[in-house]
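Before drawing any conclusions, I looked closely at one protein, both as residues and as discrete backbone shape codes, quoted below without any editing:
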Amino acid sequence: MADYRNCKKCAAELLADDIAIYRKLISRNADEFLCIDCLSEHFGCTREDVEKLIAYYRESGQCTLFR
């Protein structure tokens, strides 16, 4: 069953940006998600790197996940 409320690794509460960036980078069809901290750990980057990507996609206006 899909859990849109909590990170599948650390159980942190998810926000819309957590879900959107996970869908953008991992799978549009995902029904379980990682929070930004766990996602950055998965990719071996910093939280700030992921937040910069979120800002980029939001400012571009081209990605429907960030509208």
Observations:
- The chain has a mean pLDDT of 94.
- The CA atoms of residues 11 and 41 lie 15 Å apart.
- DSSP finds three helices and no strands in the chain.
